[in-house]
Amino acid sequence: MSTKILASATNSDDADITDDPAAVAGVTLKMAFDSSPVWGVADLSETKSERFTSPESLDMVHRLRRESSAVLVGRATVERDDCTLTVRRVELGDGKVQPVRVILDPSLSLIGGDYAIMKDGLPTIIYHLQTENLDETLKGTSDAVTFVGLSPSDLDNRSSICPLEVVKDLETRGLRHIMLEGGPATALAFLEARGVDRAILVRAPIEFEIPMPAHIDEDTMKRAGLKMIGSSVIGGDNVEYWTRDGLFWPNSDLPMWP
């Protein structure tokens, strides 16, 4: 495994790196892309979404889940992948619990669907837009699922859930380190709101036949107030590490966290 730390990141005045993982807070974005110029997140030529990063990168994802108090995705990710967002590929560790799963589902489209995350009994929070007659809508849902209604936010002239309001509410619940795991629309909303504190971007050495663009690139990251402080190669995947100015990376050896 090779690691490249950019010159600017080695300047102690930047305060970008620390060796105290326990101090990690805020939002950490993890996204995986192919190597195409459009930063593809899926191959539209395939009928079923398949994992395309290396086993080592997948292990890293599960370590990051383990280091997070919550894992956040948008509704479409649940619909497409029927994901559980739990730590499975690595040991959870003594005294640790599974991260709380957080889903942004403005119109409560997941209600009534046969999704594992809605019925496995593990703590889950679903953020939605405030609506009337909610008791009737939520009848029969698991007691492990908490529903939180938020006022609409006009982000880029569209009614949506404000990412910063979500982070603020999670903090009041004692959930201080949030892993943002996608999908691309949710990630972009957080980036546009400047609600991402650090990011791990995985570029797999493949190019999709018909890549679905993420609409995220280096300029997007920079507009979000992030800068790349280094990169490494993990299992053949190129992994970039980004952080907000003045914030630390949890380990001076970048790929050692998570």
Outline of the structure:
The chain has six helices and 14 strands. By secondary structure, the protein is α/β, with parallel strands linked by helices.
Give structural notes.
There is one protein chain. The chain is α/β, with parallel strands linked by helices and 258 residues long. It contains six helices and 14 strands. The chain has a ten-stranded mixed sheet with strand order 1-13-14-11-2-10-4-5-6-7, sandwiched between helices. Strands 3-12 form a two-stranded antiparallel ribbon. The model is unreliable at 7-15 (pLDDT under 50).
How many distinct beta strands?
Answer: 14
User: Per the principal axes of the C-alpha atoms, what is the gross shape?
Assistant: globular
The portion of residues assigned to helices is 10-25%
Order of neighbouring strands in the sheet with most strands: 1-13-14-11-2-10-4-5-6-7
Average pLDDT score: 88
Low-pLDDT ranges: 7-15
List keywords for this structure.
258 residues, two-stranded antiparallel sheet, 10-stranded mixed beta sheet, 28% strand, 14 strands, alpha/beta, 6 helices
Chain-wise SSE layout:
Layout: E1 3-5, E2 26-33, E3 40-43, H1 55-66, E4 70-74, H2 75-81, E5 100-104, E6 124-129, H3 134-137, E7 145-150, E8 153-154, E9 159-160, H4 163-172, E10 177-182, H5 184-192, E11 198-203, E12 211-213, H6 218-223, E13 226-234, E14 237-244
Parallel strand pairs: 2-10, 2-11, 4-5, 4-10, 5-6, 6-7
Antiparallel strand pairs: 1-13, 3-12, 8-9, 11-14, 13-14
